[in-house]
Every structure is written in structure tokens, then in C-alpha cells.
């Protein structure tokens, strides 16, 4: 293994665009094929995915990461599969037991308590299958977890601190038990365990709502999925325990189309963002700047200082001291903006500053990226001609990934990735 690989720490995310070294994904499997007309709404799918094709699209995304990261990956490789991490964690009987206990606790309405002993007695493979598909060798059943595809929402890493999400919907709540089990029991996370940020059970928070601007600044959406309590609990933990000094809370409409902040706002370069103009460009006092206030003395928690700011742009410019270019998702036409936002045009994933991947179908978004100086290439061309040389260069490149099946799940490349390590060489 090259030296840089062993040197990379187990967890380190220094910004949204810092070069990617290791990422967790989930290639759709058996659980996706269990989405049917009768349960799709409950499972948060607007349509059924053609699973074979979705798997191929996803495999291209994985190849792209492997090509771009090359040998710079952290220990264990560039791309980790969530399902493997869970299966490896289940090798320990403690992990299996605490997973079952977490399910019982997180989903009281499902009455898994009645089968607790049987579930705890399942071996690692059987419990793994039950966790993903809801199917067990006896009379209990749970809902399948097709949304595992969107690994982003399970957790967020800020610096070297992992935050465990607490999913807002019943369909996704078992995912919180999965990620909790992985962080608590998988040997890979042994060193990060003491830095784990866990939230009080009465709040909700999903990773798609948190963006790491730099070591001192994070943005958090207060959304359909992340409650005000969730924002404040994450803010408190970050301000108390990490290098973060500024939390910018963005108040979003509580609607499905913009369920997380990353559905309307992502970073394409250190100073360039792709934005959904109707929500992000109009100033309307929808940003709250949160900082640590005075110590209270005694054991009481430290106070917050909060003040409203008119817009995302003003908030970012004020706390970072730099200026930003906003590229409109869908270009200038309001209808195309809405159509392309719906198919995740604003949900780009940056592999390094200025190298992004999105869904090819969002053509007006790519035209806007081209106008901002990005070379637009297909995923095949990227893999054939660019690969790791492109990752190392300074060129601005926007890769078009075929995602006609994947996009039916209402999530784009950023939603499908949970970076564990992203940092510049100088940071290792
Ligand atoms: N980070 C994101 N924007 N994730 C999108 C998740 C989509 C998923 N079907 C859901 O409704 O939960």
C-alpha cells in the first residue's frame, strides 16, 4: 500500500470539496426490488426503479470514484460498501444484540420486542438480510430499506467527528440503527468512537442537511427532515467539541422536493455553488447565524448567540470573508430550474475542488456549468481519457452520469455518498 494510504486518518472531512480519499456508498440490492406500487409512497419512492439498470448506473459512479481517488485512498480502499460494513460489524454477537435493541427502541410501534429473542439468535448473515430487506426465517417482518442507497443521510462527518443521524421518517428510522451499530462495533471506527456525536432522541437530523464549508463553518438545513431541535443539538455539539465556530442554519420550506439542504444547494468548487434560485437566491431572512456565546458558569450549557441574516450569499460571504459564484440549477428559465431541481440538478458531488459529478439528464444545469468554465464530459469519457490525471489537475470538470433510474429515488450523487475522508495532501 502506498504511504499516503496508510497515513490517512480514519475520519477527516475538512470541507465539501476537499479531495475525496474514502467514501461509503450502497449499491442497490435485493431491498430495492421489494419496492412495489402498494408500498412505494410509504418507502419514499415516487416510482419503481429498474434495479439492474440502477445497479449499472451506480457501478459507474463507483468506478469514477476509484479512478479519481486512485492510490490516495485511506486504509481499506477508496470506496466502502455500507452493506459490507454492517455485515462485518455483525461478526460480533454484541453488535447483533445491540442492533436488535436499537430497532426495538427506535420503532416501538412495530412491536419487535415480541421477537427480540429470536432476532438476537439470528446468525450474522440472516440478521444482515433481515436488516436490509425486512425478511426473516420466522413470522416477523420489517419494511425493506431501499433508501440505504442515499448513504449521505445516515451520518455526517465534520473534521474528525462523526455525527449519527436520527431519521425523521419511519421508513428510514432503521437506518439509524444500522449506522449506530457500524460506528459502535466495526473495528474500523474504534479510534473515532470517542468522538461520536449522538443526538437526543426527541430531535431529527439527516446528513443531507449538513454541509461543511470549511474547518470553521458549517451550514445546516432546517427542513422536512431536520428539526429545529436537531439543528440546535448538532450546533451545540460542534461548537463545544470541534473547530467549528459558525453554524449557518438555512430555513427551508418543509416540502418533499427540497427535503434536505443538499437538494437546493451544493458546492462545485471552493467558491462556486450550484443553487436552486427560488429558494437560495431570494433574500428573505431565512438564515440564522449561530455562534457560541458566553460561558454560563457552573455546569449550565454555554449560551448561543444568534442573529438572522438576509440570504445564504450574505451569510457565507460574511463568515468566510470570500465571495461566491452561484450557478443556477436549470439555468435561467424558471421551469427548467424546477424540472432539473426535481431530478437533483442542484445535488452535485465534488470529488475535489472543481471536479463534480451530477446526473446527465439535467442539461440546462450542465450548460450553466459550461458557461462558468467547467469542461462537460460523460462518465465514459472521464473514465477513458481523464481518470486520475483529471483528479490531480486543476481543470474544472463536470462529469455527466447516466442516472435515469437512480434519479427516480429523489436523490443525486451527493445523496449517494458518505465521505469519511476528504482532505488536501498537506493535511495528512
Ligand atoms: N440527501 C438527500 N437529498 N437525500 C435524498 C433521499 C431520498 C429518499 N428517497 C428520501 O426520501 O429520503
Distance between the ends: 16 Å
Shape: globular
* Ligand catalogue: arginine
CATH architecture: 5-stranded Propeller
What CATH calls the topology is: L-arginine/glycine Amidinotransferase, Chain A
Determine the fraction of residues in helical runs and give it as a percent range: 25-40%
Element layout with pairings:
Blueprint: H1 3-7, E1 12-13, E2 20-25, H2 51-69, E3 79-81, H3 82-89, H4 93-106, H5 116-121, H6 124-133, E4 155-158, E5 161-164, H7 173-185, E6 210-212, E7 217-222, H8 228-241, E8 246-251, E9 265-269, E10 272-275, H9 277-280, E11 287-292, E12 304-309, H10 312-320, E13 325-328, H11 334-342, E14 349-352, E15 355-359, H12 363-371, E16 375-378, H13 379-392, E17 397-401, E18 418-422
Parallel strand pairs: 1-18, 2-3, 7-8, 10-13, 15-17, 16-17
Antiparallel strand pairs: 2-18, 4-5, 6-7, 8-11, 9-10, 11-12, 14-15
Bound molecules: arginine (ARG).
Arginine is lined by residues 44, 147, 150, 152-153, 172, 208, 259-260, 262-263, 409-411, 415.
